[in-house]
Design brief:
elongated, single chain, mainly alpha
Length: 139
């Protein structure tokens, strides 16, 4: 949210990480049913050693939920907060010309327009989007 009418003041951003109780339970279930067995297998084959969780220990649901509360955080490169999409996409707030729908004179040209996170670092995709925006705005 905006904290003042001074554009130099930063935004107040709360990503609501783990704000719904199902978030914690779902991630804890995923750790129990997939992550721990996966890493246990890798450790058994001497592919990896160590880690944040002891794969030989039988964690309770409560212990895994506490692990999630303590260790889960946002990614280093959040994307998708102002999705770009086709005309009929009701979830998209930015059109293919980088214009914010319903707001005259405002464009968004950053990683927030990506509907899904790229599998790697976002630097190159943001540069490509910026170059495309320059072409569109210049013409």
């Amino acid at each position: 949210s905006i904290q003042s009418n001074n554009p130099a003041d930063g935004l107040l951003i709360d990503p609501n990480i783990l704000s719904h109780p199902d978030d914690i339970k779902t991630i804890a279930r995923g750790i129990k049913s997939f992550i721990l067995p996966f890493f246990k297998d890798l450790q058994a084959r001497n592919v990896i050693s160590g880690g944040s969780l002891d794969t030989s220990y039988q964690y309770s649901d409560e212990e895994l939920e506490e692990f999630v509360r303590v260790h889960i955080d946002t990614s280093h490169h959040p994307v998708g907060t102002a999705k770009m999409g086709a005309v009929g996409d009701t979830l998209a707030v930015v059109d293919s010309n980088f214009k914010v729908r319903g707001v005259k004179g405002l464009r968004v040209v950053d990683a927030s327009i990506f509907p899904v996170a790229p599998s790697g670092n976002i630097n190159a995709p943001v540069i490509v989007a910026a170059l495309k925006a320059v072409d569109i705005i210049s013409s």
